[in-house]
Amino acid sequence: MKSLVLLAILAALAVVTSCYESHESMESYELYPFINRRNANTFISPQQRWRAKVQERIRERSKPVHELNREACDDYRLCERYAMIYGYNAAYNRYFRERRGAK
Fold first, then answer.
1. How many separate domains does the chain show?
2. pTM of the model
3. Does 88 fall in a domain?
4. Which domain does 84 fall in, by range?
5. Each residue of 37-61: b (16+ CB within 10 Å) or e?
6. What is the rounded CA–CA span in Å between residue 70 and residue 84?
7. 10-60 pLDDT tens trace
8. Is there a binding annotation on residue 71?
9. Is residue 17 one of the residues assigned to a domain?
10. Taking a C-beta distance cutoff of 8 angstroms, is the pair 96, 73 a contact?
11. Can you give the residue ranges of the Gla domain (predicted)?
């Protein structure tokens, strides 16, 4: 009986410690934590915005080979399903490398 009471007390302590909600988990105490749509673009200056667009265009032009292979595989449903099981590299090799004749 004593062990049952001790077990109940330990269980109660475990519940209390796991259910304790600290205020650190709250992201913001502000009433309106979000910015309205008009002021949303004021964080980035026009020059930084231009640089970001240029860098994105450069990244689109010079993608790594594995990313190009993955995009090709994503466009083909059978390849995508095969990739979910065996990975994109194996799926690309199965569906696209064999067609070219390179092994």
1. 1
2. 0.42
3. yes
4. 66-102
5. eeeeeeeeeeeeeeeeeeeeeeeee
6. 12
7. 888 887 777 766 555 555 555 666 777 777 777 778 888 889 889 988 888
8. yes
9. no
10. yes
11. 51-97
